[in-house]
Amino acid sequence: xxxxxxxxxxxxxxxxxxxxxxxxxxxxxxxxxxxxxxxxxxxxxxxxxxxxxxxxxxxxxxxxxxxxxxxxxxxxxxxxxxxxxxxxxxxxxxxxxxxxxxxxxxxxxxxxxxxxxxxxxxxxxxxxxxxxxxxxxxxxxxxxxxxxxxxxxxxxxxxxxxxxxxxxxxxxxxxxxxxxxxxxxxxxxxxxxxxxxxxxxxxxxxxxxxxxxxxxxxxxxxxxxxxxxxxxxxxxxxxxxxxxxxxxxxxxxxxxxxxxxxxxxxxxxxxxxxxxxxxxxxxxxxxxxxxxxxxxxxxxxxxxxxxxxxxxxxxxxxxxxxxxxxxxxxxxxx
Amino acid sequence: xxxxxxxxxxxxxxxxxxxxxxxxxxxxxxxxxxxxxxxxxxxxxxxxxxxxxxxxxxxxxxxxxxxxxxxxxxxxxxxxxxxxxxxxxxxxxxxxxxxxxxxxxxxxxxxxxxxxxxxxxxxxxxxxxxxxxxxxxxxxxxxxxxxxxxxxxxxxxxxxxxxxxxxxxxxxxxxxxxxxxxxxxxxxxxxxxxxxxxxxxxxxxxxxxxxxxxxxxxxxxxxxxxxxxxxxxxxxxxxxxxxxxxxxxxxxxxxxxxxxxxxxxxxxxxxxxxxxxxxxxxxxxxxxxxxxxxxxxxxxxxxxxxxx
Lengths: 334, 308
Description:
The complex is a heterodimer.
Chain A: E1 3-6, H1 8-17, E2 23-27, H2 37-42, E3 47-49, H3 54-66, E4 70-76, H4 77-81, H5 85-93, E5 100-104, H6 121-126, E6 132-135, H7 139-150, E7 156-160, E8 164-167, E9 178-183, E10 187-192, H8 195-208, E11 213-218, E12 220-222, H9 226-234, E13 240-247, H10 252-263, E14 269-274, H11 284-290, H12 295-306
Parallel strand pairs in A: 2-3, 2-4, 4-5, 5-7, 6-7, 10-11, 10-13, 13-14
Antiparallel strand pairs in A: 1-8, 6-12, 9-11
Chain B: H1 7-24, E1 27-28, H2 30-47, E2 89-92, H3 98-107, H4 114-117, H5 147-160, E3 167-172, H6 179-191, E4 196-202, E5 205-206, E6 209-210, H7 211-214, H8 220-227, E7 230-235, H9 239-246, E8 255-260, E9 280-281, H10 285-299
Parallel strand pairs in B: 2-3, 3-4, 4-8, 7-8
Antiparallel strand pairs in B: 1-9, 5-6
Helix pairs in contact in B: 1-2, 1-3, 1-10, 2-3, 5-6
C-alpha cells in the first residue's frame, strides 16, 4: 500500500525557510492553496502578500534578488508564467536572479480547466536561457524541492504537487540526476511528475506479458544529462516511450526526441501526453484516462511501439488510487 | 559627484550633447532630452547620493549576457558608483531615454565623452535602448512598466536590511497605461515601502503620438494617490519646484513626483514634428539643416558640422 502524505510542501517549506533570513515567501492570493498558510501564520516576518498581481510579483521578486534575497514565489503554475511572461523574462530569467518559482497544479492536476492547467510550461521554460526546471513526482520529492531549488545558482521553475501525495521514493531530489526505477532491456519508459506512478502501476502486468521494462523518472528536466539518457536508450533492444502530464510538444517527449536526434539514435520513440489539445475540468483519474496519460495509455503506447497486442486490460493493472476531488487537504480542489 | 557646474548647466549640457548626436546621426531621441534634462541633471547633480564610478570612463565593449558561463558579467550600474548600504540606486525605467541618460553621465563626469560615440554601434555596450550592461543601467527596462516593480522589490529588500540608501526610478508617463504600474503602487502602499522614489517625465508623448490620442489616462496624480502613493505634481523644467517636491513627507508610502514637461522645451522647432516626436529622423537635408540652425540658436551653440 502506498503511503500517502498530507500537504508535504507545507511542512517542507516551513522546515526549510523558517529562520533563514534570506528566504522570503511571496504569495499571490493562493496562500492556503499553495500550502503556505501555516508558514504565513507562524512566520509573518518572512511572508509577503503580493495580491492578485503576478506581473508586479515577478519584477518585485527580481528586485528582492537584487537586494540579495532568495524569494520563493507561490501561485498556481499557470498564473506564474502566462500573464507575467515578459516580467519573468526581463526581471528574473535574463539577470539570473535567484528566484524560486513554485508552480502548483501542474498539467491536469486540477479540475479548474484550461485557465488553471499549466500544460505547456515545461516547453516554455525549457526554451528560456538561464532557467532550470525541476518537477516533483512524489511526496519525498516535494519534501526536498526547496533545498534542491535553492542549491541552483539562478532561477528555478518547480512543478509542485500538493494535497495528498503518494510516497514513491525514499531519497531526495539530487539536481541533475535521474531515477532508475527498473533496469529492463526491452523498452525504455521515461516519465516525470504524476505519470511515474502510472508507469509503476503498469509494470507488473507488462512483466507478466514478458516485457522487460527499463523505467527512468525525471525530476530534473533542465539541466539535463543527455549522455546518461543515451546510455539507457542504448541498453534496450526496442524503443522508447515517454509519458508526461504536459503537451508532447516541448516537454520530456521532445527532450528525449531531441537527445536521440542529436545523437543519431535510430530507435523508435512514442510520445504520450496531451496531444495538441487543451484539457477541461474534471477529476485527475478522469482526465488522465480521457487524455491518455494513465497506465493503460502507457500499455497501449508500448503495444504501438512493439507492434503487438499484449492483451492487457485495466483489470490487469495495479489499482489506481482514488482521489477525492474535494477533500480536507484541498477544500476547493482548484 | 559634484563639480563646479550648476544643475542648469548640466541640463543644458545634456541637451547640447543629445542635439549634437542627433545632428551627426541624422536623428535621435531629441524630445526626450527636451523634456527630461532637468530631471536627470537634478538627480545626478544634486539629489542622488552616489559613490564614485567603479567602471572605466570609456565603456568597455559588450561582454556577454548573464549566464553561468559568463562569470565576469557586470551591469552598467558601476557608472553610478558601488553598491553600498548608504548609497542610492537609480533605475531608468524608459530604456529609450538611454541617450539622455548617457549624456547625463558625461555631464556629471561619470563617463567619458567618447562613450557617446559608441552609441548604437555593433559590439558596443552603449546600446540605443539601454540594456542592463549599458552605462548607468542596472536592470533591463526595455519593457515599459516593469521598472517601478523592480524598484519596489529592491527598496523593500533594502529597507528590510536596514540600508539607509534610497531607490529611485526615473519613469515616463506612458507607463501609467501598463497595469503593472498600478500593481506596483498598491504593493508599495500595502507594505509601507517609503524608501522608493520616482520622478516621472510627464511630457504627454508616446510612440504613436500624443498620449491623449493614443490612450487617455485621466488624472494620474489622483490615480497615484488613490492607489496609495504620495504624489506631487510640478513644472518639470523648474528645478526649485522639483527640489521642493522631493522634500514632501511620505511615511509608509512611495513618493512619486510628476514632472510636467514640454517635449520641445528649448528646441522650439521640434513643434513642427508634433505629434510624432518619439524618435526624430530628418526627412530631408533641408529639414536637417533648418533644425541644426534653429536648435543651435536655441541652445546657444554653433550649428553642428555634421558633414564630418
